[in-house]
Design a protein that fits this description.
Elements lengths: L3 H29 L10 H11 L5 E3 L3 E3 L4 H13 L3 H29 L3 H19 L2 H8 L4 H16 L3 H14 L4 H13 L4 H26 L3 H11 L11 E2 L1 H8 L9 H31 L1 H4 L5 H20 L3 E2 L7 H4 L2 H4 L11 H16 L6 H7 L2 H8 L8 H7 L2 H27 L3
Antiparallel strand pairs: 1-2, 3-4
Helix pairs in contact: 1-5, 2-3, 3-10, 4-5, 4-7, 7-8, 8-10, 9-10, 9-13, 12-13, 13-15, 18-22
Length: 457
């Protein structure tokens, strides 16, 4: 006769598999029911058009306004794909199929991290957490939006997650090469490359990564030079970093698609009014350079802190992997806080941060008795996941959020913004991310209790 524990385990597995099927159904339906469809215009096409005409100069988008370029590998990749698939409709389908495949591959890397982080609670119930992660990844509004619109953030998140996976396995050449590809495809991956490079410079055990990184950058630079010239080929990361610091007018301060601390502060100056204010815009341009420096300094601080704590996790099995998950999560939360340009699809690069409690919660995921700490942690996590679009469709969320009340408090007309724009304008995703960050901090507090319990009396 089977024990109740075995039956409970089977019921739990069946429930999680059902959740995964529901998630897969929603993911497939959202992509199929998208307004753009599989053959509609993509954002990558819109970027590639002007960039192809000016391969070694700045480009203009949005009614003549300047726009930052994507990297030389994006240009080379799109050029090769267009030659391979000349029909415009088939090309757009191919782009979305590739992006979908890359996102599913990203999920596979994330699920494999449960096996790489060898700590007792993941060895005990890693199977359940993997299925739960898969369900949550399939609910991601950011991923659905990026694939539907044909956006490059899918490539960015793939490179960032694969880099973490290979770095954790000490496959430094693969890690360095793939994060370098991410940077030269679109600059955003450099937010994660920089602290890993700094940590590896000061850590004797990881210096091989620096040599691999230098070799990878040189290789990609040589490949990109003929296609994009020096400034937008080998020197592309430096050119874009200079643009961020020297051209703050390119920060989309009045965009209805962005959120974050910078935009929260500038919008507070006008009580979140949608009507442009030259004074707040000027302050925002000044703050954008400050926030870029804060992002640089805070991620550097994370790297130095990881090095300082390195002796504590070099001896124990699984401690290094756990430390890297915490490190990666901290970088992601700092990115959302200090980056001068965060939109809904840019919640993909900090994807490990948004699922961090699944790795960090050391107590049983489904305990027989639930204490106040567990209730607080999972309430913050589920609530934050909802608010940043990682659990329920935004169309459902808009029906319960008091968006009209926010309009009234800000003095905006109900018709000034569509619901999606209101969601961003009033910084709701930012508060969702901070709820997840708070849940991650609470999850970390269970580590001491787990380790105390494992020490013999």
């Amino acid at each position: 006769m089977r024990s109740p524990q075995t039956l409970d385990s089977k019921r739990l597995t069946a429930l999680l598999l059902l959740l995964v099927l529901v998630g897969a159904g929603r993911f497939a339906y959202a992509l199929t029911a998208s307004v753009q469809g599989w053959a509609g215009a993509t954002y990558m096409d819109m970027i590639y058009g002007p960039q192809a005409g000016l391969p070694d100069r700045p480009i203009a988008l949005y009614e003549g306004a300047a726009a930052r370029r994507w990297g030389p590998l994006f240009y080379l990749g799109m050029h090769a794909l267009r030659r391979a698939v000349p029909d415009p409709g088939a090309l757009r389908v191919a782009q979305r199929v590739i992006l979908t495949g890359l996102y599913l591959w990203t999920i596979w890397f994330l699920m494999r991290l449960f096996a790489e982080v060898k700590v007792p609670w993941l060895e005990r119930e890693g199977r359940y957490r993997r299925w739960l992660l898969l369900f949550l990844c399939l609910q991601s509004t950011a991923a659905i939006y990026a694939i539907s619109n044909g956006m490059g953030e899918i490539v960015t998140v793939f490179c960032i997650v694969a880099h973490l996976y290979f770095f954790m396995r000490r496959q430094f050449l693969a890690a360095a090469l793939i994060i370098s590809i991410g940077v030269y495809f679109k600059l955003y991956s450099i937010v994660f490359l920089f602290p890993y490079a700094l940590f590896s410079i000061v850590s004797r055990d990881h210096r091989n990564y620096v040599a691999c990184l230098v070799a990878s950058v040189v290789l990609i630079a040589l490949v990109s030079l003929p296609a994009a010239g020096w400034l937008y080929g080998p020197l592309y990361p430096l050119t874009m970093l200079r643009s961020v610091m020297k051209e703050p007018e390119m920060i989309p301060l009045h965009s209805e698609e962005v959120f974050g601390l910078l935009f929260f502060l500038t919008r507070m100056l006008t009580s979140f009014s949608v009507h442009a204010d030259p004074a707040s815009a000027a302050i925002g341009r000044t703050l954008s350079s400050v926030f870029s420096l804060l992002l640089l300094a805070s991620t550097a601080g994370c790297a130095l802190a990881l090095r300082r704590l390195e002796p504590r996790w070099t001896g124990g099995a699984g401690n290094r992997g756990l430390a890297l998950i915490i490190f990666q999560s901290a970088i992601g939360f700092l990115m959302v806080s200090f980056s001068p340009d965060v939109s809904i699809t840019l919640l993909l690069p900090p994807i490990v941060s948004l699922y961090a409690p699944l790795w960090l919660w050391a107590a049983p995921l489904f305990p027989p008795r639930v204490d106040a700490r567990a209730i607080a942690t999972w309430s913050l996590y589920l609530g934050g996941s909802v608010l940043c679009g990682n659990l329920v469709p935004l169309s459902l969320l808009f029906k319960v959020l008091p968006l009209t009340l926010f309009d009234r408090l800000a003095g905006n007309a109900v018709t000034d913004l569509v619901p999606h724009a209101k969601f961003m304008w009033y910084q709701i995703p930012m508060f969702g991310v901070y709820c997840v960050a708070a849940a991650s901090v609470l999850a970390l507090t269970t580590l001491r209790r787990e380790r105390t319990a494992s020490v013999p009396a």
